[in-house]
Amino acid sequence: MPVIRNSAPAFISALMLLVAFHGVMSVLGLGTFLARNIEPPSPDRAFQIFAVRVGVDAALLFAGHWLLRSFGLATRLAYGLMGGAAAAVGYAFALSQNLNLLPPLDGTRLTAAVLPMLVGMIAATMYAQFAGREMVPTRNGSASNPEPASAPAGPAHFDGPVQVRTSMVATAIASVVPAAMVALVMIPFVTFFLTKWDTGASQNPAWANQISQMSMPAYFFMLTLFATAIPAAIVVGITHAAARVVRRTGGLDYALIGAVVGAVASAALLVFFPAILFPVGIVAGALMGAIYRRFAGLEPLALPEAVLATDRAALVGEHDPARRTRAVIMNG
């Protein structure tokens, strides 16, 4: 039966996403302490909370992968649901153990779980995408995974026509590109130009200054993400649809089409934004197209739909003479 492979590089890629998410949320949480003029946790305590959150989510992700392997579930949907469930369990554990540098407000504990669950779904799907599949023998004597003797084996190789899959997870990953670009621009700006911050009466001014430097890119990342996620997803969807229309499946093709779509979208927004952002839109569109292609994968083209016929005489070709002439029935 097919299962998702055990892959350390794929697990590291999923782990990096969890590290980035918890890093941003931890920095935002530390920033709220300064905004409220409250002494933030010490660096050791902040790192301890961060490490525990990442470790718990990573352990749950690995346990979910092992569980799906044992049941022979190798679909991206199964891994996405597993990742969301694992993130929900990790979030509940953090709430019970007070491991949130940015705790949810009263009455928002359930809604605050949506973002961690989405990140968990994306991380698990990334693992399934990067790890790939392998065939393993079924367990002897297992009645839960019978192998029908009459079921034909699938081909080991396929050389037929393919198309890029429509993937919500790939769209979500590609939609983060504008926010990531803003964060990458803000990090050197804050590091080299905004080096001194008003730390108030903090007992550890150096630590408070570092928190302020880290908080600025994180805040801009989240603000840009909330503002551009839906427009970016629309751009990715148009790019994917255009690539399907012209029957292109390569990563470079998606990047070029994404650049064109990004240029059109940027030109339409010139009335609201300065012209200096026009090339940024082109670059973002190209990156989103390439990233979508990388994570979406391929699927075979669907076969033609079956025809429901009631008259055998009507089953003739499009250019058959019977379709250009009509029979004559005298005295009909």
Give keywords.
mainly alpha; 2 domains; two-stranded antiparallel sheet; 9 helices; membrane; transmembrane helix; transmembrane
Note down, in words, how this protein is organized.
Keywords: Membrane, Transmembrane, Transmembrane helix. This protein has about 325 residues and is mainly alpha-helical. It folds into 2 domains: about 1-135, no CATH class; about 160-300, no CATH class. Helix content is about 60%, strand content about 5%. It has 9 helices and 4 strands. The chain has helices at about 10-35, 45-70, 75-95, 115-130, 170-175, 175-190, 205-245, 250-270, 280-295; strands at about 1-5, 135, 160-165, 300. Strands 1-2 form a two-stranded antiparallel ribbon. It starts with a strand and ends in a 32-residue tail after the last strand.
Summarize it.
The chain crosses the membrane at residues 12-35, 47-68, 77-95, 110-130, 169-194, 214-239, 251-270. The chain is mainly α.
